[in-house]
Write a structure and sequence with these properties.
The chain is of the alpha+beta class. It has 2 domains: 81 residues, no CATH class; 55 residues, no CATH class. 30% of the residues lie in helices and 31% in strands. The protein has 5 helices and 7 strands; from the N terminus they run E-H-H-E-E-H-E-H-H-E-E-E. The strands form 2 sheets. The chain has a 4-stranded antiparallel sheet, covered by helices on one side. Strand 5 and strand 6 form a beta hairpin. It starts with a strand and ends with a strand.
């Protein structure tokens, strides 16, 4: 049996997944496409060989080939293909923070424990990052050598 071109194999496997997704989200089921197939993995045991023009070709291997000793199992390669579905829906915008990074850093600097740490280590530097998913701020204090010494999480609203 002739080997299959790896690129063609990947395209055919992707097409099959798209067809399966279309069947699930078509007339047969009332399932939104974003949740029908979100991820799939295909694992193939085969031998790899160099095809025409340097293209990689897959040579499928049957369990009979292995059991009869036609192919040594050490010569097998595992080709693992992972597909992740991407929705065509418009992306959801991230929430805009209500507080500024400077305001949040000022709140953290005003805490007694942070002021004491700054006094001991001398010259703490602060960086604030807004985390949209949780609507929180993560403030990282680093020492003069750039090592993180404290992480503080604050809600975006209130003080």
């Amino acid at each position: 049996m002739a080997g299959a071109d790896l690129t063609g194999f990947l395209a055919a496997a992707g097409g099959s997944l798209a067809d399966a997704q279309g069947t699930l989200t078509g007339d047969l089921a009332d399932v939104p496409s974003a949740v029908a197939i979100s991820e799939a993995e295909l694992e193939v045991k085969a031998t790899l060989e160099s095809g025409a023009g340097g293209a990689i070709a897959l040579q499928p291997v049957s369990s009979e080939d292995l059991s009869t000793g036609k192919i040594d199992s050490a010569a097998l390669s595992t080709v693992r293909i992972r597909y992740v579905a991407v929705t065509d829906a418009a992306p959801v915008s991230s929430p805009t923070p209500k507080r500024s990074a400077d305001d949040v850093i000022g709140t953290v600097k005003a805490r007694e424990d942070i002021a004491a740490l700054d006094n001991i280590l001398g010259g703490l530097r602060f960086e604030a990052q807004f985390v949209p998913v949780s609507r929180n701020w993560l403030v990282t204090a680093t020492d003069p050598d750039g090592r993180p010494v404290r992480n503080v999480v604050l809600p975006d609203t209130g003080r």
